[in-house]
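Entry for the shared binder. Reason: the reviewer on the internal report wants the predicted structure included alongside the sequence.
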Amino acid sequence: MPAGQIGWIVAALALAALVLSPIVSLGVSALAGTGELWPHLAAHVLPQALRDTGLLLAGVGILVVVIGAGSAWLVSAYAFPGRRWLEAGLLLPLAVPTYIVAFAYLDLMHPIGPVQSTLRAALGIARPGDLVLPDLRSMPGCIVLLAFVLYPYVYLPTRALFLMQAGGLVEAARSLGRAPSAVFLTVALPLARPAIAVGVSLALMEALNDVGAAEFLGVRTLTVQVYATWINRSDLPGAAQIALVMLALVLALVAAERLARRGRGYAATARAPRSMVRQELTGARAALAFGLGLLPVAIGFLIPAAYLAAGAVSRITRVGLPPTLSTEVANTVLYAAIATAIATVIGFLVAAAPRLASPRIGGALIRIASLGYALPGTILAVGLLTPLALMDAGLSRITEALFGASPALIGLGTGGALVTAYLVRFLGVGIGTCEAGLARVPASMPDAARMLGRGPAATVRQVQLPLAWPALVSGALLVFVDCVKELPATLLLRPLNVETLATHLYGEAARGTYEDGTVAALLIVLVGLVPVAVLLRLDGRGRRVSVDP
């Protein structure tokens, strides 16, 4: 076996050990608990957590399908003034993390907040207690808010499928006299089932990973219980056992998504697919269509973003910037940048593995390295504790034997733990974008390089890397933004007395000092706009989204 191939096998095994170690560690930590622990969890913790998690996922799943598929059909099947603005604007909620939306609406809907104060003034009501509105701190409130933030996961792939595949079939149904609703329900929606299944599974993964919004809104999900069991009760084995239940739920979601897409491939001719002919809407129907399309954009992005901007301006005008803001920005950028740099390099090497080593080794490496993206941050945080502690203990013994002194911790309790969690969780993002970029390099170019005597490594370095660098940069941006927005892993693994923008916002919301957190929240939203801009640039098949009215 060539030495290079042996090196790739060793690297693949090391990467597999890194990605799989949290899962193995969860089982070991869960078994470390006492025999009385599991009955207590099963009797007093898991019933409510499973019930709340199940209700949350069911409600969010239904709503993201309704909002995502409905808005995708609206902008794909109909033409009306402002449609192209909506086509781009419907992606904007991706820029706002769920916990920031909950943070914004809790203050907006507070009994002495702007919404209820305005309503009382308009209705002539003096006391806050005399105006009773539905409580946002409830399961329905959490479902609605999460759905209006996560629906783009369904909207984006469903709209792409409508644009690429639905034209001929929809036109045939229309020519047979089917009503618009019947065309959507009997032709377009079944056709989009694979895309909807993928989008729903991603949205539910994000809902399961959420800890901030659920806790702010009083919903005791499995994720919230893991955090409370570990931090509030200092019970790591109990947190590991709840995390194992979460892992089983994640596997069930992945299996359900695979099952929903089974046997749902669609054949196409060699010719370019026929685009759908949009039906022209005018007058009141056009205004209604624009209003329906604008509603999720307003709830999921415009209203919370306007609130954060107004709150940040008010806070800065009155007392200036928070004194700790520069440190929190520096911490956020530092940890995210280190994780992004490592993930980008490893992601490119993993994506190039089928070209540098063998397709079999490279394919296995890609699949293993991408597993971390399916794991919620809470599971990763709990699962990484034991591997990081073992690594510190091993390094301490080695350095003490060699130099007679033990170093300070470099894993557990340091920024290294946080960077490791970011790397494992978001490595799949970097791999995916690099793989897509390398796939667009014409096969003739590396073939020509090899004919000129270049080896596999030189071909990748001198030919494919320069051609794939835009995908490399896009992947790095996406990884960086995901690291900045990540809350569960950051809360659980950050070093002592270290705050990032996300953890600062979480603390302000927990204390009820909402205005003090608006500056940090606004900065996170502005960073979150980066992947939306990337998606808009890459939208469709090599075309940019036009924003003409």
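Summary line for the report: Strands lie at 78-79, 279-280.
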